[in-house]
């Protein structure tokens, strides 16, 4: 993949992340306006329905990108999301908001297809990990702009960020249509692209392990982010702007780690070892949030959180991409996005129930335990115990 193509892809990912990040600081306040109460369960239900439909839609989008091409599938997904965001902005009750967010979730496939484009275009190894890191940095930059702007707009009107997100999504449609090139292999491979990814095959045990690590990490991550704004309001009386600034800060740190430090770290450490270190940092950060007494201390815990996310996720994505064939990269992207969506469905619901019944500390401690379990599973992988770099694997 040449530099220009990677930059164009990263821009598409960044704009998509910004359009989603715009909503994070204000969603609890919009739900509160629609329902007349600031209820943790109602708020997390909206987040969960988005994730639930993304769970259903992501594998289909990934498979369609294998069959019909990355670019046209991306264009359709972004166009529908634009309409759904506009509908969410105009929703006048909780049911309408949930319907529009369900549609938005079903077509939220930009990052899944972007991962397939990188896997199409970059050979397995450290360079692919670096390219996944660039995508992750772009995701982080989107979360820098999105929550900061969303918090600012949301302090005036909680609907304003939804309108802004629709504008961002429309701009993204124009960007991908004008700048992205099709990366899928020749049409001669169309018949092969129909072959399913046999996840439960005995030959895919390492892929199964990596997916389990990925899912456990994101279960803790999604539970954490699903309750963060509510906890900041409850414990520290923070509004959308203050919470948005912390989310912005996390995005800056993660982007710097993935864009500037990850390539250097990969020259000294295996991707698996960096992923383990990152998972441990995230767990420490979650334990830290459980114990802090003042809001400003979140900047210390979230420094560890962002650094951990920054060095763990690119390696995991790269390692998984090495376990499938070229014509299955879209299916893998859809599968990993579906796994994330499942955690985004279960995580906020779990966090909402725990928070309502047991309070802040135990909620964050459970999240940390999930991430520690992911780290333990990755540490037990045969490839991690070897001193040699993992060779690219094919089924």
Structure notes:
- With 395 residues, the protein is mainly α.
- It has a single domain, classed as MFS general substrate transporter like domains (Growth Hormone, Chain: A), CATH 1.20.1250.
- Helices cover 78% and strands 0% of the residues.
- It is globular and about 50 Å long.
- It starts with a helix and ends in a 10-residue tail after the last helix.
- 57% of the residues are buried.
Gyration radius from CA atoms, angstroms = 20 Å
Please tally the helical runs, counting DSSP H or I stretches of 4 or more residues. Answer: 15
**The CATH homologous superfamily:** MFS general substrate transporter like domains
**Through-space gap between termini:** 24 Å
Number of E-type strands:
0
Structural class: mainly alpha
CATH topology: Growth Hormone, Chain: A
Describe the largest sheet.
Answer: none
Query: Approximately how much beta-strand content do the residues carry?
Result: under 5%
Which class in CATH terms? Mainly Alpha
Oligomer: single chain
Shape: globular
Helix content: over 70%
Helix-strand sequence? HHHHHHHHHHHHHHH
How many structural units, i.e. domains? 1
Mean pLDDT: 82
Taking pLDDT < 50 over at least 5 consecutive residues as the criterion, the unreliable ranges are 188-194, 386-395
Task: Just name the CATH architecture.
Answer: Up-down Bundle
